[in-house]
Amino acid sequence: MRRNGRPRGATAASRIYTDLRAELVSLVRRPGEPISEAQIATAYGVSRTPVREAILKLSDEGLVEIFPQSGIFVSRIPVAALPETIIIRKALEETTARMAAERATSSQILNLHATIERQRDACAAKDREAFHQADEMFHASIAEVAGYPGIWKLILQVKVHVDRYRRLTLPQIGRMSEVIAEHEPILAGIERRNPASARSAMASHLERLLDDISEIQTLNPEYFDQPTKEL
């Protein structure tokens, strides 16, 4: 860091990448919107070099698109890729839920209950961001309880576009309450030490993401890519 607090070098690129990624995944920067390297560089008090490094990394993740003659734009959600990613996540989290039911301690179960309470509070306050963060904590904690936190880290790498899509489901009337209702039987299965029940409840919860794709795309067509139909 420079004395005036501005980031420099690799630190600047890392911070800009982290901040921009959070804005893209949370849809603060909406699909299709232009991104100005110059504006970002000015905001952070840096040259355009670390900004370009961050943008290139985000491009590798499919979160931005770079058009040499037109500019940089927030990518639209690739609807065709969502089912496969959700299926991968579902397979992995069925495993963590099952193993959590086999290994959970009493204190870990209490922590899971506390996380659901955080979701209830966020739902009551209509705080979608706090709700999303508590949701992430619930799933990450189950992987931790299962003894394989690395599984959640792997899921984080593959589900970036699913997270963008999920943000669009939360404003739907009653959806946050429904998520809590879907989480409760997962926790109940873990608490009862019933691996099959926990696995089944997790599967049902994540299958809902598959079921809602078409509806959410119809409600927010401008946020999704529109694959060209073959003639």
Question: In a nutshell, what does this entry contain?
Answer:
The protein has 231 residues and is mainly alpha-helical. The chain is built from ten helices and three strands, in the order αβααββααααααα. It has a three-stranded antiparallel β-sheet with strand order 1-3-2.
Radius of gyration of CA atoms, rounded to a whole number = 20 Å
Report the end-to-end length measured between terminal Cα atoms.
Answer: 55 Å
The order of strands across the largest sheet is 1-3-2
N-to-C SSE string, H for helix and E for strand: HEHHEEHHHHHHH
Bulk shape: globular
Number of helices: 10
* SS strand fraction: under 5%
**Roughly what percent helix?**
55-70%
Q: What is the residue-mean pLDDT, rounded to a whole number?
A: 92
How is the biggest beta sheet arranged? 3 strands, antiparallel
- Pairing-aware structural class of the strands and helices? mainly alpha
User: Total strand count, please?
Assistant: 3
Low-confidence stretches: none
